[in-house]
């Protein structure tokens, strides 16, 4: 049965609120509240941690949400796998000491096979090896294909310290033709054949800062179902990017670049990156993040510049991100709980426009530096540009190393990839250390901002503050 992305979200939230007694809550912000262990919310359960641990009393023992999530750890996968974005929505139903496996499993089965009407014979599940209880419950579901259960050692879900436990994941077999062809290809294979759509976590432990596991006072349920993934199945698309939750942005970018989607793999990757990153940046800015050189602001800056780089790789020379954000915002028009995105669209575009201008400026400065360096290398009779210089171009001027490499090749020179990667690794270590410190920021209330009063703070250190508003 065809359902739009917005209809799917609504169907899930209604199923759990109206039929299974859950309190429907709006998505929480991407910025974790009182949780210094996290940079950005990456799972539906993350903002609910205090309810699992018992630190706070939940408004009801059953809650359902569609949580906006950003996983920068998946950034390299974007466009290369069918199923990963940096930004996605995680549908979830949660029990705080209320129901457990005996309800969570049958309800997931009911939603998938009766509401969304997925074919039962194509569904598979994985369980934690000693979880006989979950195996029995799965086997008693109406029409469950009895041999579609796989025991997996790594079926244990945790995200930093906090509530965690053994899990059971639901996959759909998309057919042999989508597989990698390896004789070992089976559930859990990283190729596109078996798509993980839903994870049911039987939360019973509380991981401590020292890495040990304490028992929680009561047993809980935490589930996470990727909206874009289930949409790709229901809409019969090969990737999440072709669903109505992302494709309009691809169409926009393809149109601006004058290319066609589906003709060239590398170009398709760039289009998918732009589509994903446009949604990420819009939602991050909506939640009060501004581009900067540290913490969340750096994540935003990196995503934004990465999108611009992919635009350049497609041959786009002019500014194009505001249009991409318009396309992203339109996707959510009329969807419940997305009024904030619609209302802040002008503000979001203003911030992006300023950063796009700023990057254009550093791109030119970077070009000057690079041209000078090329002269030096040539005069010295060398064949390679030092990795430290490539890193400086990347880090200080936001200069993509792929662009550096291209220009070097035009000059019959090479790039010292090893030295560059070493410098990058050192940078990562610095970033990790910085993240360990408290990087939380105060989020201004942006709902009543007058966009016309936004100006660039030229006196601020590069990257520190991109825009300020004056009253
Ligand atoms: P995968 O193994 O495919 O990377 P995961 O096991 O890391 O997924 P979970 O942490 O179990 O994912 O998150 C719960 C659900 O959220 C997944 O089953 C999937 O539907 C969805 N999801 C996770 N990561 C992404 C992503 N990067 N983009 C889109 N959906 C995602
Ligand atoms: Mg993953
Ligand atoms: Mg997985
Ligand atoms: Mg999983």
Task: Report on this structure.
This protein is an alpha+beta fold and 471 residues long. It has two domains: 5-234, Bira Bifunctional Protein, Domain 2 (BirA Bifunctional Protein, domain 2, 2-Layer Sandwich), CATH 3.30.930; 246-469, no CATH class. The chain is 41% helix and 17% strand. The strands form three sheets. Strands 1, 2, 3, 4, 5, 6, 7, 8 and 9 form a nine-stranded mixed β-sheet that branches. Strands 10-11 form a two-stranded parallel sheet. Helix 6 packs antiparallel against helix 9 (321-331). The chain is globular and about 75 Å long. 42% of the residues are buried. Residues 438-444 and 459-471 have low confidence and may be disordered. One magnesium ion binds at residues 169, 196, 199.
The name of the CATH topology of the largest domain is: BirA Bifunctional Protein, domain 2
CATH class of the largest domain, please? Alpha Beta
Main structural class: alpha+beta
> What's the helix-strand series?
HEHEEHEHEEEEEHHHHHHHEHHEHEE
Number of DSSP helical runs: 14
CATH superfamily heading of the largest domain: Bira Bifunctional Protein, Domain 2
Keywords:
471 residues, 14 helices, BirA Bifunctional Protein, domain 2, binds magnesium ion, 2 domains, binds adenosine-5'-triphosphate, globular, two-stranded parallel ribbon, disordered C terminus, alpha+beta
Short characterization:
This is Alanine--tRNA ligase. The chain has helices spanning 5-19, 49-53, 101-115, 132-139, 227-234, 247-257, 265-286, 295-313, 321-331, 339-343, 345-379, 387-397, 401-410, 417-436, and strands spanning 23-24, 62-70, 87-95, 123-127, 149-151, 156-157, 162-173, 194-207, 213-226, 384-385, 414-415, 454-455, 468-469.
